[in-house]
Design brief:
Number of strands: 9
Strand order of the largest sheet: 4-3-2-5-6-9-7
Structural class: alpha/beta
Largest sheet: 7 strands, mixed
Radius of gyration: 20 Å
Number of helices: 9
Strand content: 15-25%
Shape: elongated
Helix content: 25-40%
């Protein structure tokens, strides 16, 4: 999965362990920046700037841009451009306290497949500090995030994202837009935290959702037998998890919470 981006032809070699594929298609870069539509005083945080394909166009449009980059060699490349409004933080995005960036923040980035879900869940837990998020991910991941119930690809990621965010697939990015070219399509996804979230306990909600999809071919009665019985919920447990919409899962979690707190 594409991770990093570059508009330069620098000698930095893409590193597989960081999932690096550098974005080189200027038309796609312009489309991404247009999707973000940054304002001068926006509080922007970019995850994984790489060599700066999105970073430098964004710097032209905002007073200040914070970026998190794990690769020290890429940080040297970014620093060499001497941009006074660029603030670089070295390290893993999963270990950063978002309070350091004076929230609320707008988050952008090109996330690698191997850590995309952990980053999304990390930001989910801190969604109160986020205005919106624009990410490039593997197309398959975005399709799962935005899938409707009843779909074969509707699953835990779909439910967890849609329970807390409005999820919109903006456009698809082909492999030839990168160097080296990945073997899969990518896609731009736009996420905004829901103004009204019905989930009252994230930990219990995630527990129910995870258990529900643990064995996709089994009914909810089997998947949730250690957590809920049919007598304890109004949701028909003879169904499979993919048939339930977001509100159904919220109901299951609330019914479980009643048992958990009693």
């Amino acid at each position: 999965m594409p991770k990093r981006q570059s508009t330069t032809s620098g000698k930095h070699k893409a590193r597989k362990r960081f999932g690096q594929n550098f974005l080189t298609d200027q038309k796609i870069i312009d489309q991404i920046v247009a999707t973000i539509s940054p304002k001068r005083d926006d509080n922007l945080l970019e995850i994984g700037p790489g060599q700066g394909a999105m970073t430098f166009p964004l710097l032209d449009r905002v007073d200040k841009l914070n970026v998190i980059e794990i690769d020290r060699d890429l940080i040297e490349i970014l620093n060499s451009h001497e941009k006074p409004n660029l603030v670089i933080h070295q390290g893993d995005a999963l270990n950063f306290d978002l309070d350091l960036f004076n929230p609320p923040i707008r988050v952008v980035g090109n996330l690698p497949y191997n850590i995309s879900s952990p980053i999304l869940f990390h930001l989910l837990e801190h969604r109160d500090k986020v205005i919106d998020m624009t990410f490039m991910l593997q197309k398959e991941v975005v399709e799962r995030m935005s899938a409707d119930h009843g779909s074969k690809i509707y699953g835990r990621l779909s439910v967890m994202m849609q329970a807390f965010f409005d999820v919109e697939l903006i456009f698809v990015v082909p492999p030839e837009s990168f160097d080296p070219a990945p073997k899969v399509d990518s896609a731009i996804v736009y996420l905004t935290p829901l103004k009204s979230c019905k989930v009252t306990n994230i930990e219990l909600f995630e527990k129910i959702v995870k258990a529900s999809f643990a064995h996709r071919r089994k009914t909810l009665r089997n998947c949730l037998k250690l957590l809920l019985t049919q007598e304890q919920t109004s949701i028909d447990l003879s169904q499979r998890a993919e048939m339930l919409d977001i509100d159904n899962f919220i109901t299951l979690a609330q019914d479980y919470e009643k048992q958990y707190t009693n």
